[in-house]
Structure formats: C-alpha cells, structure tokens
Task: inverse folding
C-alpha cells in the first residue's frame, strides 16, 4: 500500500440496552463488560501497529466527551472530537472524512464502531489491511462482512456476488462484489439468507480512499459534500463544526451512501466478532454454574437456573427459586427483568428519574 491509513472510530452510542450500568453519558463503548478495559479502549488498542495514534479520530458527542477524554487520557487530545448534536452516521462519517481529508487528501480511511468485541487482533489487522489494499487498487467502497453463525434478525445483511481478485494477491473468495444491502430481516428471511450461503452480516466497518468517498458524497449527498469541503479549508474546522453540524440531515450512512452506491466490495472477516447488543450476549463471557446461571460476581443460588447476574462493588447476589432472570446491581440502581425481555430494557429509560437515565 502506498497511501497512509487513517481511522475514524465512531464512539457516540446511546447506552440504553445496558442500563443500569450504562447511562446516557456512559454508553456501551465506555463500559468494561468483557475484560478489564472498556470496549473503546480495546478498539483503539486493536489498531496499534496498523494505524498511527495521531491518525486516529475518536468521534463522540457533547454528552459523552468528558467521559471519553477521561478514559483515553493518554490519547492525543486534538484527536477526540465531539459532535455538538446527534445527527446519525452519515453526518458523523462526513465529519470524519473532512478531518482526514484536511490532513491527507489521498489517504485510505477506515471507519470502525467503538463497541464491538474482537479477540483476534492479528486476524483483524490482516482483514483490514486487505480491505485497505482493495480500496486503494480498485477505487471502490469496501465493507467488511461477517460470516453468519445463526439467523440473527437484529443485523443488516450484505448479499455477495462474484469474487474479485487483486493483482498481487491470491485471496480466494475473500473479496466479493456487493449485490445489495438488506435491512434487518424477520427470522424466516434470515434463515433463507443462511441457506443461500452468500449473505454476510453487515458489521458497520468501511474502508475507502478519500477521493472515492468524496466522489460518492458529491454524487449522492451534496449537502454533506459541501460540509466536508468547508471543514477542509485551513483554520475552518472548529467554526464549521460549531455552526453547520447541527443543521445537517439526520440520516444513516448506509441509507445516504452505501445502499445507493454502484461500486461496492465486501471483504470477509477472518476474525471473531461479537456485537454484544444486550445483557444476554454479554452473559456468554461470564462464568456459568451447573444450572446455567451466568455471573461476573459472587452468586449464591438455590433452586435457580438460567439467570444472568452482573454486580459491582464486590457484593454477593443471592437467588432463590427464580429462573430466566437478568439481575444487574450498580451503586445506585438494581434491574430485575426476564431474560427474554432484554431487548426492551431501553423502553424503561424514559420512565426513570432523569438522574438515573
């Protein structure tokens, strides 16, 4: 590869599904859910050796900026930028593109969520390096596809077409043309995707050259393209961010750009991947007793099974005659819900006192 690699890390999630551990100012990516480091810390560490620290932009929002800066105390301060208001991912990617383009107009750019669990750093870097080489050689938008392990209705899907070969590599079936993106399907449709075999989960990871993505913004989202152009002007970044960002359209990047682009490739991930979207998913990383109770803390259980327990501050949680519950204890709140209601925890948030949201 001849072009330097930059990375945009999207770190502005809402933090609703992991209440009471998560709050609006402390979303999933700032939590230590599966290791001693927060997910955002893991994401940044995963880039060591692939992307220089001063070429990584952490994009958060005003509500979470202080917590992000505290968590990443050793990170270059000017490389942490807060969106003044939430404007969905199209505006976020436009902002990141402007930041990168102002530094190197020919750079290759990675876009990565901050809240995924990936254990195999070497395989992650190998896949991203292949995607960067693909983006540079072909001049196309590149996305990362995850081979599905089950018919998940909660993810978007990528339908793969013909394989694509690079000039200097022989990566058999690692790169394919994207036929189309599919929205989150129902279970039956998801099962049909798995049977067909040419569908991959859309992990929300993208790779492209700056000229390629600028061309797509110009073609499909002129308002965002104009915003990028103004951001790139010398000395303009802070002023344009402050005055223009909150007026940008609230639309996802997938819908604004990716789904309408006619030259998109998908590189299949060779690494493990977990979106950990709920307490049920996090429980896979906890210790289990012989009755299926998964916990990160001390638990005494009698006639209890298939419960998920998370506790802070060293307390013991006791279970008696209960099954299929989620029990989460923090310093100021306790959650008790049925494990099959985990996806509805966010419905609680608006009913809670403001200080607990």
Result:
């Amino acid at each position: 590869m001849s072009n330097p690699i930059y990375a945009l890390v999207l770190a502005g999630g809402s933090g609703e599904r992991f209440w009471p551990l998560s709050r609006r100012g402390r979303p999933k990516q700032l939590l230590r859910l599966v290791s001693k480091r927060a997910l955002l810390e893991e994401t940044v560490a995963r880039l060591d050796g692939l992307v220089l620290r001063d070429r990584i932009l952490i994009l958060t929002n005003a509500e979470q900026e202080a917590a992000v800066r505290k968590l990443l105390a050793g990170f270059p301060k000017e490389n942490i930028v807060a969106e003044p208001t939430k404007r969905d991912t199209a505006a976020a990617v436009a902002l990141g593109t402007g930041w990168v383009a102002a530094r190197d107009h020919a750079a290759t750019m990675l876009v990565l969520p901050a809240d995924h669990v990936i254990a195999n750093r070497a395989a992650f870097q190998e896949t991203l390096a292949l995607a960067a080489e693909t983006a540079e050689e072909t001049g196309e938008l590149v996305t990362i596809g995850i081979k599905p392990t089950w018919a998940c209705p909660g993810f978007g899907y990528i339908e793969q077409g013909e394989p694509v070969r690079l000039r200097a590599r022989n990566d058999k079936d690692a790169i394919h043309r994207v036929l189309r993106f599919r929205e989150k399907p129902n279970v039956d449709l998801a099962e049909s995707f798995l049977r067909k075999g040419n569908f991959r989960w859309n992990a929300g990871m993208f790779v492209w050259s700056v000229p390629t993505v600028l061309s797509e913004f110009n073609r499909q989202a002129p308002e965002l393209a104009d915003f990028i152009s103004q951001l790139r002007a010398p000395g303009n970044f802070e002023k344009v961010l402050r005055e223009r960002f909150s007026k940008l359209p609230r639309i996802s990047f997938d819908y604004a750009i990716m789904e309408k682009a006619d030259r998109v490739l998908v590189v299949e991930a060779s690494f493990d991947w977990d979106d950990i979207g709920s307490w049920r998913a996090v429980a896979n990383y906890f210790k289990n007793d012989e009755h299926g109770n998964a916990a990160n803390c001390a638990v005494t259980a009698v006639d209890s099974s298939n419960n998920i327990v998370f506790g802070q501050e060293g307390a013991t949680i006791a279970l008696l005659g209960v099954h299929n519950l989620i029990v989460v204890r923090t310093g100021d709140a306790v959650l008790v819900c049925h494990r099959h209601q985990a996806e509805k925890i966010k419905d609680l948030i608006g009913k809670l006192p403001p200080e607990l949201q």
